[in-house]
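hey
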C-alpha cells in the first residue's frame, strides 16, 4: 500500500457491552495488560505468573485437579481442548438446548466422525455413534431427560452445557454428574457462561471428568487471553491410554507450560507454545479480582442485579424466559413482536450492545456482565425502554423505574 491508501489508525469506541458476552473488561485487567513489560514466554516472572494463575484457577473452579490451566484463545479453544480426548468412533450423547450446546454437539460430531462420515458431510458430519438429545429452546436439560438418554445409550462420553447462553437456561449438572456416575459415563461440561458467576465447586460433581470455560464472561478477562479448563485424573488417564489428534490443545502437553508434568506440579513450565506476557498479566489480574470478590458474594451480586433487571423489563411489558443470573432472555410485547432484530440494531447503533438470540425463536438478550451496580442496571433499563418506545411500544417507563426503586430500596431496608 502507498501512504495514501493505508487506512488511518483503527479507533474502536467504548460501548456498553450489555449482551451475553463479552462483558466490559475490568479497568484493572486492562491496566495489567498494558503495563506488562516485554518479556518472552520463558522469562521467570511470566512462568511464575502462569503457576500463580494455575493455583488461583483451582480455587475459582473449586478443585484439586492437577490438570487445571488456561488454554490460549476463547471459549471454543478451551472446549476444543476439552473435547480433544473424543476419538473417531467414540460413543457420545450430547444434550442441545440452544446455540452454544448446538456448536458443542457439532464439535463432538466432528471429533467422533469417521473419514466416511466427514466425506459424506464435512461441515456437518452425522456419525451414528453420536446421539443428539434436543431440548426445546427456552427449556432446561433436566434429570429425567439425562437419565433416559444415558441409561438407553450407555455412551463413553456425555456432553452438556452448564448455562446455555443461547436461550439463557441453566441445565442440571447435579443430575448430569449423578447419571454419569451411575452409568459409568465420562461427563464433559461447557461451563463457559457459569464460571465466575455461579457459586459451584467442580469437585462436588465427580461424574464430570472435564470442564471448560472462557475468559470474557464471568472471569472478566479479555477475549483471546485464556480459557480455563480442568480435567480429573480419570480423564487424563483415558487420554494417556488412547491419545488425541491435536498437539496444540492436547491437555497433557499443553499443561507442561503451566508446570504440570507427569500428573504433578513441577517447579517451572517447559515450552509448549509462545505465551504472551501481556495475556498472562491480564489473566492473573482477572483471577485476583474474582478471588477478592469471592465466589459466594459474586454469585449473590449477580442474582440480586439480574432480579432488578428482570423486574424492570417485565414492567415494560416483556416476557422473560431465561433463568441464568448474568442475562435475561425475553420476548418483546405484542406490539413489537417480529421487530426484535430492528430493536437490537437500533440499540447497537448507539453503542448499547444487546443481542438477539442466534438461533430460532428470535428473542432479545440483555446481559449484565461486570455491570453489578444500581447505576449500571438503571442505565441499561433506561436505554432499553427508550429504544422500545422509539419503536412505538408505548412501554411504561415509570413502572420500570418503580420496579427498580422497589428492588433497590428493599436492599437498603435490609441493610
Ligand atoms: C460464549 C459461549 C461459548 C463460546 O465462547 P467464545 O469465547 O465465543 O469462543 C461457548 N459456549 C457457551 C455456553 C458460551 O456461552
Amino acid at each position: 500500500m502507498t501512504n495514501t491508501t493505508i487506512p488511518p489508525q483503527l479507533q474502536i469506541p467504548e460501548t456498553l457491552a450489555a449482551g451475553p458476552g463479552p462483558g466490559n473488561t475490568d479497568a484493572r485487567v486492562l491496566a495489567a495488560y498494558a503495563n506488562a513489560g516485554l518479556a518472552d514466554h520463558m522469562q521467570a516472572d511470566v512462568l511464575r505468573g502462569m503457576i500463580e494463575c494455575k493455583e488461583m484457577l483451582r480455587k475459582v473452579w473449586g478443585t484439586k485437579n492437577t490438570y487445571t490451566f488456561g488454554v490460549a484463545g476463547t471459549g471454543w479453544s478451551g472446549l476444543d481442548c476439552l473435547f480433544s480426548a473424543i476419538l473417531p468412533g467414540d460413543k457420545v450423547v450430547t444434550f442441545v438446548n440452544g446455540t452454544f450446546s448446538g456448536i458443542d454437539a457439532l464439535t463432538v460430531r466432528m471429533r467422533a466422525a469417521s473419514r466416511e462420515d466427514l466425506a459424506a458431510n464435512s461441515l456437518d458430519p452425522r456419525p451414528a455413534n453420536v446421539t443428539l438429545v434436543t431440548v426445546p429452546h427456552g427449556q432446561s436439560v433436566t434429570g429425567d431427560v439425562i437419565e433416559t438418554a444415558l441409561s438407553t445409550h450407555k455412551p463413553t462420553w456425555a456432553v452438556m452445557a452448564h448455562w446455555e447462553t443461547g436461550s439463557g437456561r441453566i441445565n442440571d449438572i447435579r443430575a448430569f454428574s449423578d447419571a454419569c456416575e451411575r452409568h459409568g459415563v465420562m461427563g464433559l461440561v461447557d461451563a463457559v457462561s457459569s464460571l465466575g458467576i455461579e457459586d459451584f465447586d467442580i469437585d462436588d460433581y465427580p461424574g464430570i471428568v472435564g470442564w471448560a470455560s472462557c475468559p470474557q464472561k464471568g472471569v472478566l478477562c479479555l477475549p483471546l487471553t485464556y480459557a480455563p479448563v480442568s480435567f480429573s485424573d480419570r480423564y487424563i488417564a483415558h487420554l494417556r491410554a488412547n491419545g488425541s489428534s491435536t498437539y496444540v490443545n492436547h491437555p497433557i502437553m499443553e499443561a507442561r507450560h503451566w508446570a504440570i508434568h507427569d500428573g504433578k506440579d513441577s517447579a517451572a513450565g517447559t515450552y509448549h507454545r509462545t505465551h504472551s506476557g501481556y495475556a498472562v498479566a491480564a489473566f492473573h489480574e482477572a483471577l485476583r479480582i474474582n478471588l477478592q470478590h469471592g465466589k459466594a458474594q459474586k454469585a449473590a451480586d449477580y442474582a440480586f442485579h439480574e432480579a432488578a433487571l428482570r423486574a424492570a423489563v417485565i414492567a415494560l411489558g416483556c416476557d422473560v424466559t431465561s433463568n441464568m443470573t448474568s442475562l435475561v432472555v425475553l420476548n418483546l410485547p405484542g406490539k413489537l413482536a417480529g421487530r426484535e432484530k430492528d430493536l437490537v440494531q437500533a440499540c447497537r447503533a448507539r453503542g448499547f450492545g444487546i443481542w438477539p438470540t442466534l438461533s430460532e425463536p428470535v428473542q432479545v438478550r440483555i446481559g449484565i456482565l461486570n455491570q453489578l451496580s444500581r447505576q449500571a442496571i438503571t442505565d441499561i433499563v433506561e436505554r432499553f425502554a427508550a429504544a422500545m418506545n422509539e419503536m412505538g411500544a408505548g412501554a411504561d417507563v415509570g413502572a420500570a423505574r418503580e420496579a427498580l426503586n422497589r428492588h433497590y430500596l428493599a436492599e437498603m431496608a435490609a441493610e
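The chain has a mean pLDDT of 96. The chain has two domains: 27-291, 295-414.
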